[in-house]
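Lest this sound abstract, we think one record worth quoting, the chain in one-letter code, the fold tokenised, each line plainly labelled:

>
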Amino acid sequence: MAIVLVPSVVNGTVAGWKDTEKGAGEFTAGSVEAVQNLKCINQGVGGLLTSSVRLEWAPPASQPPVAHIYRITVKKNGSVDTVNTTSQLNYLYTDSRLVKISSYELTVQQVTTTGEWAGPARTATATGISVVLGLTMVCGSGN
């Protein structure tokens, strides 16, 4: 003879409910577009006696005029040097650590407010030369 013990419910509960009202919703796909007209602008007099370049761009053309956030990534000699965000349509990059000859790749991307989604990158290049102080920093060709 076997005895089987089964737990019993003393105070029973209902673990769910049924609601007869209907709900409706709608989802819309979106995209994060690339910035337009990226320009790298020399600072100083023809890029001399400066260690800065300025980036300027226009917002994506196909999106409504809402607040945009842009991520700027600067690679110095192939390694990420700086990552910043701005809501402005320009960014001044200054390298206070110019050492000999340095190459720069500056990218701008529109990003969502959480930074989880990013549009295509637009890239500009620059070259910096220094002896002791920032001798020159100039934008590359084709920017």
